[in-house]
Amino acid sequence: MDMTEYLRRVPKVELHCHVEGTLRPETVAELAATHGIELPTDDIGTLYDYDSIYEFLETFRFVNSTVIDRADFARMAYETLEDGVRAGNLRHREMFFNPTLHTTRGVPLATVVDGLVDGIRRAEADLGVTCLLIADVYRQDSAEDTMAWLEELIELDRPEVVGLGMDAAEAPDPPEKFAAVFQRAGAAGLRRTSHACEDGPPVNITTCLDQLGCERIDHGYHILDDPDVVARCRDAEIVFTVCPTSTARVYGWPDLTTHPINAMIEAGLKVMLNSDDPTMFHTDIGKEYVDLCGQNGHSVALVRELVLNGVDGCWLPDADRDALRAEVVAELDALEADLEPA
Ligand SMILES: [Zn+2]
């Protein structure tokens, strides 16, 4: 087995993937036909080709307008887990969904959650992959509206929903806006993470840890601007869920050798790799490993570390996480034994 195949086949945990950014183009076409929605293009293969962030956002809105019924949400969740298993030997994922992306267009929160749970349970039965859900706060929403859906989510009490996260534009709405929301989530037993320091300052990470009770940080690239925050996160072993392809594209980093992920690894931060919005960026969890580790010539030891950082950072119950770790280690050992010397 060569390094590329090895990187594809390495067992993977993914902690940063937005279900709304995972729809297959063919599924979008079928759902649009079912619901009588006109497609923006005659060539569905070009659905996810765009020249600007505005076109991206427009496509994102369109794609999500085709997901309406409980069965649609189930299909979306099932297919993305199937894609992860096939393309990258995905073993466990903690997947974001944005409640207000759907509730603001009239889809009840219970339809969203129960549909996703249906798909997750079917994928686990068919493919052996496990998945938990994290509800994402949309930063541009008001704290009051966000608290309202959080209460509804807590009331639903679905076991797959284990956490609260936060995304969307960071600069105009820094994390302290949602401190009370995150405190409420913590009191209700939800785990917490947040997109932070993606294009905002390192103080946003400090705020997420101290005021929001976050255990993980999603992205975090600009942490490198503040050595004190780096030292704190390194010592506390905070897991950073980084996304090579999507952020290189959005921020114009020309290839993955100049991506700040490398400097974060060198700084001793606990980093693990993710696909973010895989179909929307023409990627998958296998490709993220192949591209980042391949382009940088990362060692087998470092690949193992990246994989196990994902296991350490996941929110499975302790016994399940330990079992997953043992399985992953055994599989890594076997794969490494089959790897051709470089
Ligand atoms: Zn993200």
Automatic annotation (TrEMBL):
Coiled coil: none
Keyword Metal-binding (UniProt): yes
Keyword set includes Kinase: no
Source organism superkingdom: Bacteria
Co-factor requirement: Zn(2+)
Ranges for domain Adenosine deaminase: 11-329
GO biological process assignments: adenine catabolic process; hypoxanthine salvage
UniProt KW keywords: Hydrolase, Metal-binding, Zinc
Record GO terms (molecular function): adenine deaminase activity; metal ion binding
EC number: 3.5.4.4
Any one cellular-component term (Gene Ontology): cytosol
Family, similarity comment: Belongs to the metallo-dependent hydrolases superfamily. Adenosine and AMP deaminases family.
Protein name: Adenosine deaminase
Organism: Iamia majanohamensis
Source organism phylogeny: Bacteria, Bacillati, Actinomycetota, Acidimicrobiia, Acidimicrobiales
Encoding gene, per UniProt annotation: add
